[in-house]
Design goal:
By secondary structure, the protein is α/β, with parallel strands linked by helices. It is 36% helix and 14% strand. The chain has 14 helices and twelve strands. α1 crosses α6. The longest helix has 26 residues. The chain starts with 7 loop residues before the first strand and ends with a strand.
C-alpha cells in the first residue's frame, strides 16, 4: 500500500541520510531493494535496531566483484529509481554511475546523496552533519546569547537538509520521467538543503528583522515568550506564545503581572520572571494547567515520550518489540504502514533477487559475488 505502490527502487547502501530517504520511499509504498556489502556496514547497534533500514528487503552483494556489478545493472534495468550515498566518483569507478545506468535504463531517476555535493572544492572531502551545518550558516543560528552554537543531533542536517531534499528531488524527477520517459540525476547535498532551510531567516536578515547574534531574535530564545523554562522537578516547558492573544493567555494562566513585552528593554526582566514562575511547580502540573489551551505551552518530553495526543494519533508504535515513529505523512486513500523490520545484510538475497528476475543466484553465491545471511 501507499501512493508509491509499483515504484521500484535500488538502494546502494550507505549510512545516515540515504537510508532514511529510502526508508521514507518504502513507507510511501515503493518497493525498495537495499544492496549492502557482505557483513553489513557501519551501524549504531544490532541490525534489528537500525530502524532507518526498516521497510525493505536486504541483499548482500560484493560490489568489488564484477559479477555483483552485473547484477546491479540488471536490477537497474527493472528499476525506476537508484539511490546511492557514495563520495563523488565512486559509483562511476564501480561501473554503476549515472551514465552507465542511463545507458541501461533511460527513464531511471538517479538519486545521489552527499554532504558537499557532486562538485565544488570540498566535494571529495570527508564531513559529517555538523560540518555541513557549520558552512551553511544553520549551525550559527542555534544557541543562546553569548554562548557557542548548539548541536541539534543530526536531525537538521542529515535528515531535514539531506534525506527530505533527496526524497523531494526523487519524487519530482519521477513525475517528470513519467511524462517524458527520460530520467535524470538528483544531486542532493546536505550543505545545500540546510542552507535552503534558512530561507525565511535570510529574508528577515536582509530586512533587518533578524540579527546575526545568536539568542537575540524572536525565534532563537532571544524573546522570553519563545523559550524553554525549567520546572521545579528539573524538567522543562516549551513556551511559544508569539501572537498577542496567545501571550495574553500565557500570562493569565501563569497569574503574573508582566512588563510590556513589546519593549525589548524589558526582555531580560520578563525572562527572569517567567523562569522564576515555572520553577515553582513540577512539569506535570504545568502540563495539566496548559493542556488544550491556546497559550502555546507544552512539556518537553524525552525521545518516544508518552502523551495523550501522540497516543490518540499513534504517532509512536510498538513494532517487533521496538518503540518507533509511525510513517508520516498520512494519506486518506492510500494509507501507509510499517512493513518489514530492519534486516541484516543478505537476509533476503535469494528471494529478493529471484523476485527481481535474477536467475543465476546459486552461481553468484558460489563465487562470493552474493551472500545469503
Amino acid at each position: 500500500m501507499g501512493p508509491l505502490e509499483g515504484v521500484k527502487v535500488v538502494e546502494l547502501a550507505g549510512i545516515g541520510p540515504a537510508p532514511f530517504a529510502c526508508m521514507l520511499l518504502a513507507e510511501l509504498g515503493a518497493e525498495v531493494l537495499r544492496i549492502e556489502r557482505p557483513g553489513g556496514g557501519l551501524a549504531m547497534g544490532p541490525p534489528e535496531l537500525e530502524l532507518v533500514n526498516r521497510g525493505r528487503r536486504n541483499v548482500a552483494l560484493d560490489l568489488k566483484n564484477p559479477a555483483a556489478i552485473d547484477v546491479v545493472r540488471r536490477l537497474v534495468a527493472e528499476a525506476d529509481v537508484l539511490v546511492e550515498g557514495f563520495r563523488p566518483g565512486v559509483a562511476e569507478r564501480l561501473g554503476v554511475g549515472p551514465e552507465d545506468c542511463a545507458a541501461i535504463n533511460p527513464r531511471l531517476v538517479y538519486g545521489r546523496m552527499t554532504g558537499w555535493g557532486q562538485d565544488g572544492p570540498l566535494a571529495q572531502a570527508a564531513g559529517h552533519d555538523i560540518d555541513y551545518l557549520a558552512l551553511s550558516g544553520a549551525l550559527h543560528l542555534i544557541g543562546r546569547a553569548g554562548g557557542p552554537p548548539q548541536v541539534p543531533a543530526n536531525i537538521l542536517g542529515d535528515f531535514a537538509g539531506g534525506s527530505l531534499y533527496l526524497v523531494v528531488g526523487v519524487l519530482a524527477a519521477l513525475h517528470n520521467a513519467q511524462r517524458t520517459g527520460q530520467g535524470q540525476v538528483v544531486d542532493a547535498a546536505i550543505v545545500d538543503g540546510s542552507a535552503h532551510l534558512t530561507t525565511m531567516l535570510l529574508g528577515a536578515l536582509a530586512g533587518g528583522a533578524w540579527k546575526q547574534e545568536r539568542g537575540t531574535n524572536l525565534l532563537d530564545t532571544g524573546a522570553p515568550f519563545y523559550d524553554v523554562y525549567e520546572t521545579a522537578d528539573g524538567l522543562h516547558m516549551a513556551v511559544g506564545a508569539i501572537e498577542p492573544q496567545f501571550y495574553a493567555e500565557l500570562i493569565s494562566k501563569l497569574g503574573i503581572e508582566a512588563p510590556d513585552r513589546y519593549d525589548q528593554a524589558n526582555w531580560p526582566e520578563l525572562h527572569k520572571l517567567l523562569a522564576e514562575t515555572f520553577r515553582q511547580r513540577p512539569q506535570a502540573e504545568w502540563a495539566e494547567l496548559f493542556d488544550g489551551s491556546d497559550a502555546c505551552v507544552a512539556p518537553v518530553l524525552p525521545l518516544a515520550g508518552d502523551h495523550p495526543h501522540l497516543a490518540a494519533r499513534s504517532t509512536f508504535v510498538d513494532k517487533d518489540g521496538v518503540r518507533q515513529a509511525a510513517p508520516a505523512p498520512r494519506f486518506s486513500r492510500t494509507p501507509t504502514s510499517l512493513d518489514r523490520p530492519p534486516a541484516p545484510a543478505g537476509q533476503h538475497t535469494r528471494e529478493a533477487l529471484a523476485d527481481w528476475g535474477i536467475t543465476d543466484i546459486d552461481g553468484l553465491l558460489a563465487t562470493g559475488a552474493a551472500h545469503q545471511n
